[in-house]
Amino acid sequence: MPTIANNPDRKSWLEVPANSDFPIQNIPFGVFLTTDDLITIGTRIGDYAIDLGAMQQLNYFEGIELTDDMFMQDTLNDFISDGKKTWRLVRNRIAEVFDVENPLLQNNQEHKARILYHVDDVEMQLPVMIGDYTDFYSSKEHATNVGKMFRDPDNALLPNWLHIPVGYHGRSSSIVPSGISIHRPMGQTLPAGEKTPVFGPSRLVDFELEMAFITTDANVMGENIPVHEAEEYIFGMVLMNDWSARDIQKWEYVPLGPFLAKNFATSISPWIVTMDALEPFRTKSPKQDPKPLPYLQHKGKNAFDINLEVSLKPENGEPTVISNSNFKYMYWSMAQQLAHHTSNGCRVNSGDMMGSGTISGPTPDSFGSMLELTWGGSKPIVLSDGTERKFINDGDCVIMKGYCKNDKIRIGFGEVVNKLLPTYAGK
Length: 427
Hints:
16% of the residues lie in helices and 26% in strands. The longest helix has 14 residues, at 84-97. It is of the alpha+beta class.
């Protein structure tokens, strides 16, 4: 089935600002609260949030086999479970309805009043009920930087890193959408030169620039997903900030890895950009040496050219761009991550989220965390207001953006923005 929604020459009758992340070729999926306090599944074109529940009620999806309440739910899980054929049919239909040459909805004022909202008038929600969340560690540059800082600089990568997509299981209960403030976590740390830990607020709160992919139902327990089939089970991607408390992490991570330093907050952008929309931006992955074992070997272009930007905004100041990176730097691809994840028969369900791991590039200005940008705090960042940062201060906002662009279209993810608040004082 062709992906007609990707036609780069298509124009919408909805106004799309220049350099918008959301032209008619994007058609992401999300969940929002309307001005009538109703939760609906929707999409976005330009600065318009589009109520797909209302569109379904008004028969704009006639001929597509959908359950009666498919888009009148508070998560995308059931829609995602329907699989790629349904995703593509729906996305193609939306592209047709909002095409500048189609008068069907364009000339129906009553229907437009029920379907269209300005994005500033809706409240975005988590797009899926995330049952399980796995975070990988798949940037060679990031893993090398961390290894140099905390282990032997001459042997920065652990022996297994070049052979498997290393990952750990996260905490789905602490995943929030853009706009939700994050409290500085409490935890155990070991002060420099001391032998006894103390309990208190983390002093080294950090961001991690990541992306994440959302899966559909992929397998039954005991079944593995071949690497060449893995992308069939990936619905789409979001931006992700995997907040980290570096001082808590340093004390707790041996021998079982991240725990409280990572599970206090993870934030994502609210619109899921489909793999179909990202198809024009495929590119080659970095060369893998040594060659992976056969179950992880795949051919073709398995990376995506997604420009990424991180800004830090003080409470009463302007944002300063502190990192420019790209998703194409990832050593292990999404297909390899999912194939490895299921290689032991682990079940993957609709709405599961897989984080890429921190995305760092080859140059200091492309590093994906404060830990790397300031090299453990030894090289503070100077913001536009003249203040310095080693890590994130209370009141600071972290702003992440991502987009793809070629000579015809630009497709983006919007942004994920979250403010760091002082430690929670409720109890």
